[in-house]
Design goal:
With 338 residues, the chain is α+β, with helices and mostly antiparallel strands. It folds into 2 domains: 2-136, Ubiquitin-like (UB roll) (Roll); 150-336, Alpha-Beta Plaits, CATH 3.30.70. The chain is 30% helix and 29% strand. The protein has 8 helices and 16 strands. It has helices at 54-60, 94-103, 130-136, 165-171, 174-194, 219-245, 278-293, 301-307; strands at residues 2-4, 36-40, 44-47, 52-53, 79-84, 109-111, 116-117, 121-125, 150-163, 198-203, 206-211, 250-265, 272-276, 297-300, 311-319, 328-336. Strands 1, 9, 10, 11, 12, 13, 14, 15 and 16 form a 9-stranded mixed sheet that branches. A 5-stranded mixed sheet has the order 3-2-8-5-6, with helices on one face. The radius of gyration is 25 Å and the shape is elongated. The two termini are 33 Å apart. Residues 1-26 have low confidence and may be disordered. The protein binds FE2/S2 (inorganic) cluster. FE2/S2 (inorganic) cluster (FES) binds next to loops.
Length: 338
């Protein structure tokens, strides 16, 4: 299940005059016989008698709803999330549908200017201030225009790290260190992609990879297969390193399964798609725990439960992970069952 979370970026600076500060909007008198639109975070309840355009309804009550393009389905700043009452709304117009496709809106995110309401509804405005407008507007002007972020219920997150990297980088010239890392990254990322994953980020000598962004059913097993493939790459690298530099090359892998938020994050010129969520921290921590457990690859209970029929597991560890409350059980991966 995918949920709308927030929107990122894009600028149209000459709007927003009417958006700063409090609205002065008041709740209209409650009339039990009339449907009403409840608008948050303004906490304004607006009764109405006939089918009404949502943007018109909001502006009639002085709700400071952004509408940069004047209601022509071109800016997307009037977007709202429907919390209750989706059935009380008209279907998307072709213009709204095009915008929704472009920005990856889930069903509960609507353009108020394109939506008629016939019964009670509760909604959140998603574009609240000048910064939101700058981020959300699709009217161009050379600013970044990106898709809406989303929550994904189940993504496998894999961390890999080069063991003893600090010692290696002190022992070898910088050029060689970069060359070695890039040689490993190139082959490791190929292994990840071959198993349906994607490299989310490189962090020094570490790599963050994700599986299941498009909600593939077998993301847990794919991540374990990819982790094993990355360890194979590291073994090849170890031979190369021993031969060329007389130095060991070893990699540790940690994998977790859980909910993430996936979307474009970062500044206007540096935004990129990435994931955030507790599972990212867990994967990172259990990758580091390999050092203490003397293992190459650890996975969480959830990964084990999903891959039990296909993966050969070894020892089990009850871990007290730094920065995490409570203990986490991690399982050593030994290989794939043929
Ligand atoms: S006001 Fe611009 S899209 Fe609705």
């Amino acid at each position: 299940m995918v949920h709308q979370v927030s929107q990122f970026i894009s600028v149209q600076p000459d709007f927003v005059r009417s958006m700063s500060g409090n609205t002065g909007a008041r709740n209209a008198r409650y009339n039990p016989l009339m449907p009403e639109a409840s608008i948050w975070p303004d906490e304004v309840d607006i009764p109405f008698a006939n089918a009404t355009n949502l943007l018109d309804l909001a502006t009639s009550a002085d709700v400071p709803i952004a509408h940069l393009c004047g209601g022509r389905a071109r800016c997307s700043t009037c977007r709202v999330r429907i919390v209750e009452g989706q059935a009380a709304l008209s279907h998307r117009t072709p213009e709204e549908a095009a915008m929704a496709t472009k920005l990856g809106f889930p069903d509960d995110v609507r353009l108020a200017c394109q939506t008629e309401v016939v019964d009670s509804v509760r909604l959140w405005r998603l574009v609240l201030d000048k910064i939101d407008v700058e981020m959300a507007s699709q009217l161009g002007g050379g600013h970044y225009v990106g898709p809406v972020g989303r929550e994904i219920e189940e993504v496998a997150v894999m961390f890999t790290d080069v063991a003893g990297f600090t010692a290696m980088s002190e022992a070898l010239p910088p050029y060689d260190v970069v060359h070695i890392l890039n040689r490993f990254f190139a082959r490791a990322s190929e292994a990840v992609e071959n198993h349906g994953g994607r490299v989310d980020n490189y962090m020094g000598d570490g790599v963050l990879c994700v599986f299941g962004i498009d909600q593939e059913a077998d993301s847990a097993l794919s991540s374990v297969r990819a982790g094993i493939a990355v360890l194979d790459v590291a073994r090849d690298m170890n031979e190369y390193m021993n031969m060329i530099y007389g130095h060991e090359f070893k990699v540790r892998v940690g994998i977790g399964l859980g909910e993430v938020i996936f979307g474009l994050m970062g500044g206007e010129t540096s935004a990129r798609e990435t994931v955030i969520g507790d599972v990212v921290n867990v994967a990172s921590r259990i990758e580091a725990a390999n050092k203490e457990t003397g293992t190459d690859m650890l996975v969480t209970d959830r990964i084990r439960a999903r891959t039990l029929q296909s993966v050969h597991f070894g020892r089990e560890f009850d871990l007290d992970l730094r920065g995490k409350s409570g203990r986490i059980v991690a399982h050593e991966v030994l290989g794939i069952i043929d």
